[in-house]
Design brief:
Helix content: 55-70%
Order of helices and strands: HHHHHHEHHEHHHHHHHHHHHHHHHHHHH
Number of strands: 2
Shape: elongated
Strand order of the largest sheet: 1-2
Oligomer: single chain
């Protein structure tokens, strides 16, 4: 154990650095929330104002259809002049808001005429001409009174969104992928997304009021399903690994994307229905490339997904879909202007820390959810092994430091820092990460097997009392899985066989009427179970399972006969001292089975004519035995 402590834990000075990393990671989302609460009202108004300015961009598509041979530079100049004309109108109508744009969003007012715009965009539908002059943010009620279908108005002055209006917009979006119709949906979607937080509506302007549940559901589902399709058509990023921010049209339409994502965050935060949450997360995943273009929204989105993924009240479908969305965001391309290459590093840190926080309370109800979280998170660590190695090294080292401190201080308080569910689940988590991703000997994570095994064995030896036998079996199972999957020999047998000499098994047990102990949900044996018949039978049953699974991974190995001798001897020695019982009989059968496997390998070995130094022949023999016995 001394060697492991030196190998794994080299310098205590790194503790501060690791704590800073963890604090930084977990505080990023909270900082963004604070920023969002301060600017939410202003940005919402600004997003819709940008929609006004962008309304006339759809004329581009009509120009492209009427004159395919027209020079692209002239088209861009024509667009810029049209934008400037709209800005002049805005300056006259609302000079104060125009000044605000000059101060806060000057990029909307400045256009570079030398910039070339991609003109291969094909947008079907000739009905967009009638929509170009509409003001989606303001929608003056006097103008709307002249339309064929007169809008209803409630006491708040907001137009009531009717089913006929919504159906018309949806049909237009689905048939022609009209950007203007999509903008109408997005403005209405804002009202739907913010229905659950009316107390936070101060400073937020809405256009519509939704009073029908069926209209609400139709609006939300239609907007979420059509938004990614329209965005991909506008920015032409349906294929490839390029960020939408690199598209020429991004500067004109990014406000539309931003409006949708910000309101989608509000919607996902307020939803409680499991089916609707599943649809929202599934459709949000399709916008992963767009989330990655806005750092603040990406972090808020990741925080929501992590909460759904780790929430015990979430259905399995929602939790699995949330993980798929996390993985999609982690691998999405980011704009070149950002410092980071992907969000994978942030996702790896936070998914592990979220797992640790949520595995503190382990019982029969939470254990399946914890296992699901672990299995999903393990998959994320297989995407980029080089990046995963950095994360795994830091957190395995933290486990080693915690264990070393407990060994040095030797107090009850220090022992509890190791003997708890979080620490044991962390060992099991990293054992599964390495077992899944280190089956290839060239794996970059493979060097971490040794330090993790030493931490695990040190955990067993910290307090070797019978009261902590359940904890011992948890660690033994994790290490057995790691050793068998990676084909690395981990000496676990001594930690099993020493239990045959413990007072729990050598002394006569007291009669007991207690129910069998739930070993999967206990780390410490309740006091009333100790020295009872139920506990003794449980220990023998757990030993039988651990010994069998341990040696099962070596049934095919050329050295199996030598490896299994200590196990057979230990079992037979215990059987001689024990009274007949069901568990004793099972151990007797196990010893016989191990002996039969040993004799089979010896028989096959007697037929070979190569020495142990000939590795190629040895590996060939092992592979042949594996195919026959497993």
């Amino acid at each position: 154990m001394e060697k492991v402590e030196d190998d794994v834990v080299e310098d205590d000075s790194d503790d501060d650095e690791e704590n800073k990393v963890e604090d930084l990671v977990m505080s990023e989302a909270s900082d963004d929330n604070k920023e969002a609460s301060d600017s939410d009202g202003v940005e919402s108004d600004l997003d819709e104002a940008k929609l006004q300015l962008d309304e006339s961009d759809d004329d581009d598509d009509e120009d492209e259809e009427e004159g395919e041979g027209e020079d692209s530079t002239k088209k861009l100049n024509k667009d810029i002049k049209r934008h400037k004309k709209e800005l002049e109108q805005l300056k006259k109508q609302d000079p104060e808001f125009y000044k605000y744009l000059q101060k806060e969003e000057n990029a909307l007012l400045d256009f570079d005429e030398s910039e070339n715009e991609d003109e291969d965009d094909e947008e079907a539908g000739s009905g967009d001409d009638d929509l170009n002059s509409e003001n989606m943010d303001g929608m003056d009620m006097d103008e709307q009174s002249d339309s064929e279908e007169e809008m209803e108005e409630d006491e708040s002055g907001l137009e009531i969104l009717t089913k006929s209006m919504l159906t018309e917009w949806i049909q237009e979006v689905e048939s022609s992928h009209s950007v203007n119709a999509m903008k109408k949906l997005l403005v209405a979607f804002k009202s739907a997304a913010r229905m659950s937080d009316e107390e936070k509506m101060e400073g937020v302007s809405l256009v519509y009021r939704i009073i029908s549940p069926s209209v609400f559901n139709q609006l939300v589902v239609a907007t979420m399903r059509n938004a990614p399709i329209v965005f991909n058509r506008v920015f032409k990023c349906g294929q490839g690994n390029k960020s939408p921010a690199s598209a020429v049209r991004w500067q004109y339409y990014q406000s539309m994307v931003k409006l949708y994502l910000s309101n989608l965050i509000h919607l996902m935060t307020g939803l409680t229905d499991s089916d609707m949450l599943y649809v929202a997360v599934k459709e949000a995943e399709k916008c992963s490339a767009y989330w990655a273009c806005f750092d603040k929204y990406a972090k808020e989105y990741l925080k929501i997904l992590l909460n759904l993924w780790s929430n015990y009240s979430s259905s399995d479908n929602v939790r699995i879909q949330s993980f798929l969305a996390i993985r999609s965001l982690a691998t999405a391309p980011v704009p070149k202007a950002t410092k980071q290459t992907t969000y994978l590093d942030l996702a790896l840190k936070n998914i592990y820390l979220t797992f640790v926080r949520n595995c503190k309370n382990t019982n029969a109800h939470t254990l399946p959810a914890i296992n699901l979280m672990r299995n999903l998170a393990v998959e994320l660590y297989g995407i980029d092994q080089e990046l995963s190695y950095k994360q795994a090294f830091v957190y395995i080292r933290q486990l080693a430091i915690t264990l070393r401190n407990a060994m040095q201080t030797k107090t009850k308080e220090s022992y509890t820092t190791v003997y708890n569910w979080q620490f044991i689940h962390c060992i099991d988590f990293w054992a599964n990460v390495l077992a899944t991703n280190c089956q290839d000997e060239s794996s970059e994570l493979r060097p971490l097997i040794y330090p993790l095994a030493q931490v695990a064995l040190g955990t067993i030896k910290l307090v070797p009392d019978a009261q902590y036998y359940p904890l011992r079996f948890h660690v033994l199972r994790s290490m057995t899985t790691l050793g068998v999957s990676t084909k690395v020999f981990i000496p676990l047998a001594p930690y099993m066989f020493e239990l045959f000499e413990s007072p729990v098994l050598t002394k006569s047990p007291k009669p007991s009427t207690l129910k069998p102990l739930e070993w999967d949900t206990h780390l410490r044996t309740p006091q009333n179970y100790l020295r009872g018949r139920v506990f003794q039978d449980g220990v023998l049953e757990q030993l039988h399972e651990c010994i069998y699974n341990y040696y099962k991974g070596y049934f095919y190995h050329i050295a199996y006969p030598e490896m299994v001798i200590p196990g057979i001897v230990a079992i037979k020695r215990f059987l001689k001292k024990s009274k007949p019982s069901k568990q004793v009989k099972k151990l007797h059968d196990l010893a016989s089975k191990l002996d039969i496997k040993s004799k089979y390998i010896l028989t096959q070995r007697s037929k070979i004519d190569f020495s142990p130094t000939q590795e190629d022949d040895v590996n060939k023999f092992i592979e042949e035995m594996r195919q026959k016995l497993l």
